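FAQ: What does the model actually see?

It sees only this:
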Amino acid sequence: MATTPDLSEQLTPTGPRKVDNFRGILFMLTGAVLISCLHALVRDMTQELHPFEVAFFRNVVALVVLAPLLLRQDRHAWKSKRPDLQLVRAVIGLGAMLSWFYALSLVPVGDATALSFTVVLYTSLGAVFLFGEKMGLRRWGALAVGFIGTAIILRPGFQEISPGYMWALGSTVLWAGALLMVKILVRYDSPVTIVFYSSVYFTPVTLVLALFFWEWPTWTQFGELVAIGLLATGAHLAMAKAMQLGETTAVMPVDFTRLLWAAGLGYVMFGEFPDMWTWIGGTVVFCSTLYITYRESRVKGTAEATALKTTEG
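And it is asked to produce this:
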């Protein structure tokens, strides 16, 4: 059985980065497959158990898996210089996760995946207003195109926007807020510390919330819940490794395959398949976010992107 790569290698670049686009693409493809399977399983389990309980199992399994990796790190990585900001980031991130799991209980996994690409749009917009980051005319244009793509998916005025889609959009806004908090936190703490605090905060809070809706899972359900936690951990480690190894322009296009995998899994497992407008809108959103990510990577490098990708959901 393959061993899990050292977490420090995943999160902290040391010296000049050796570019290996081929391996980066393979890791990104692996991450895309795993996260699509994760979302499909979450949709399946939230039809039987409350999303809060599913979220708890996702977090506790991830914490158990990450604990040995965290124990191998320097103990200074466990102490945050800004615990107040860690708490704020955790609250926002937890809200994003819970709303996303609830959205998946209502929305086809392919449609939710198409909307998930909008996180980059809200992150870029928030960075302008919160941090005073400069965006040129081309990036503003890409941002506008991305929001047009979102409108194509939702088609307001042509169809009723169900609550599930609103929860999915709300989750993407909250994820963007959590990522903006990471942009602040990486000035004070290492990505390892950020991952550690996220796991520590998420697990007990989701347990308390889950207790209000608790149903003891069957052995089959328990196996799926464990799989959800393993898939989440594996997906984000794979994506972090992809961002570390490859150039953004090489690995990020592979992230679009999430829509393909999600659509296929949704059809096989639930008989759901995205309509033409979801495909068109999702493609438009992804292309705009790809351009924005490319432009930002040229300015800031990939270290911050790696931290962001690893601390998502």
